[in-house]
Amino acid sequence: MRDKVKGRRLFFISVLFIVLLNFPLISIFNAAGTVGGFPVLYLYLSGVWLACIAAIGFFINRQDPRKRRDKV
C-alpha cells in the first residue's frame, strides 16, 4: 500500500515539473532582465530543478508517522 502512495506522489511531482519546464512557462521568464547579475531564465530553471530534487528527496525519505517508533 505504501509503495502505491509513494508512486502516485512521485508521478504527480514528475508531471508537475514537466509542466513547469515546458515552453509556455519558460517563455514567461525569458526576459532581458537580470537579478543579481544573473538572467531571470537561468534563475527560474535552476530554482525549478532544485525544487524538483528537493521534493523527490523529501517524498522518498519520508517515513510513515504511524510506523515510526521513538527510540528512548
General description of the model:
By secondary structure, this protein is mostly helical. The chain has one domain (2-61). Helices cover 67% and strands 6% of the residues. The chain has three helices and two strands. It has a two-stranded antiparallel sheet with strand order 1-2. β1 (34-35) and β2 form a beta hairpin. α1 packs antiparallel against α3. The radius of gyration is 17 Å and the shape is elongated.
Salient structural properties:
72 residues, two-stranded antiparallel sheet, mainly alpha, 3 helices
**Relative strand content:** 5-15%
* Quaternary structure: single chain
- Uncertain spans: none
Structural class: mainly alpha
Question: What order do the strands of the largest sheet run in, or round the barrel if closed?
Answer: 1-2
Q: Which term fits the overall shape?
A: elongated
H/I helix tally? 3
**Number of distinct beta strands:** 2
